[in-house]
Amino acid sequence: MSAGPHAVEILDCTIRDGSYVIDGAWTQDDVKNIVRELSIAGFRYIEVGNGIGLGAHRKKVSSICTDAEYVSAAVANKGKAKIGVFFIPGTGNLQDIETFRANGGDFIRVGTNVSDSDDAEEYIQFAKGLGLEVGYNFMKSYTVSPYELCLRATRVERFGADCISLVDSAGGMVPREVAQYIARMKECLATKVGFHGHNNLLMANANSLAAVENGADVVDTTLMGMGRGAGNAQSETMLVILRKAGFPIEIDALRVSKISEKYILPKTGKLKGSDGLELVLGYALFHDSYLKLVDTYAEKHKVDYQELIVEVSKINKENPSENLIVTVAQQLAKRQKVRIFFPKFYHKDIR
User: Number of C-alpha atoms within 13 angstroms, CB side, residue 96?
Assistant: First the structure.
């Protein structure tokens, strides 16, 4: 059953998720200007940093700013907003969290694949001990049933998380599915519940609305929808949608659109959308971090790129190994069967 209108927090992750789009080419001035404008517009949670979070430099991720520069620039211009970062265990470490707090950070979101959720315990408890507000993101949430997600979520709640989020990492969920997951999470959790959607099937806004209508307290958006892959729910339109749906939203969507025109459009040149690549990723619920491996072995074994994605994803959506991708490519090559699921597309390099 859908929940009635309730207070909804819009968490802006333009700088963090949007960094994928521009290869980390945010300058400190960009961060200062965007954070200041978002705070003035009424956003109260703003996430900054590289796409994969604290410690991204260890993975040789392109970036103009260091972690400390992202945070210091944001904190100096945050106004009434809270400044946060993303954190993946193994990419970041405890020292990164401590430094973030020392630099004035307010909240952190720990993210792992669903099957690795217990790995978050140490980091959630450490961050809570430093006085940070702590969220947890179930990356690739769709790889388990709502029931199993709730079993894991109740454990994460005991770790001390303040908010637990459903994450449609491949942008392949539809509103009915999101509604089912969020409804179950609201039943089993006392924490806030959030939703982070991607837009491979152009459903990020619809899925975010479904999440809120079923009780989600927090939804993630980005200016112009900029984000990894096909992007995220678009702040400007999401604000209008939520207000039209009767939720108490005080942020002025028209003012927000002017922020995008001033700071985002010059960086991207266009709105994010869903091309053939993004569409097959959403269709198969396949995460784009494995594209280089798929590209390599599709070319080596002369098999259809889209078909390889679909067949691999049937076996493992969460963490397909290189060996699995090789094996499936070899099997497709032996069958000498070509099935085109979607039109051919120009494949750009994705880091």
Answer: 24
Nearest to 104 by CA among 128, 78, 122: 78
Burial class from Cβ neighbours inside 10 Å (0-12, 13-18, 19+) for residue 255 reads middle
Tokens 């193994």 belong to which residue?
Answer: 90
Residue whose C-alpha is closest to residue 267's, from 8, 22, 9, 96: 22
C-alpha 103/C-alpha 66 separation (Å) is 13
- Summarize pLDDT for 33-48 with one digit per residue, the tens: 999 999 999 999 999 9
Q: How far apart are CA 301 and CA 326, in angstroms?
A: 9
- Mean pLDDT for the chain overall: 92
- Contact status, residue 213 vs residue 179, Cβ threshold 8 Å: yes
The pTM of the full predicted model, rounded to 2 decimals, is 0.86
At 270, is the secondary structure helix, strand, or coil? coil
The residue with greater pLDDT, 90 or 283, is 90
d(CA 226, CA 339): 32
User: Which residue would you say has higher pLDDT here, 155 or 349?
Assistant: 155
Would you give the DSSP letter of residue 342? S
Q: Tens digits of per-residue pLDDT, 160-169? A: 999 999 999 9
pLDDT at 268: 85
Residue 343 has pLDDT above 70, yes or no: no
Contact 210, 245 (CB under 8 A): no
- Half-sphere exposure of residue 45, counting CA atoms within 13 Å on the CB side? 24
Domains of the chain in start order, with CATH, are: 9-268 (3.20.20.70), 276-335 (1.10.8.60)
Among candidate residues 331, 341, 345, the one with its CA nearest the CA of residue 274: 345
Region class of 18: left (phi > 0), else alpha (psi between -120 and 50), else beta: alpha
Helix H or strand E encompassing 246: none
Say whether 77 sits in a helix, a strand or coil.
Answer: coil
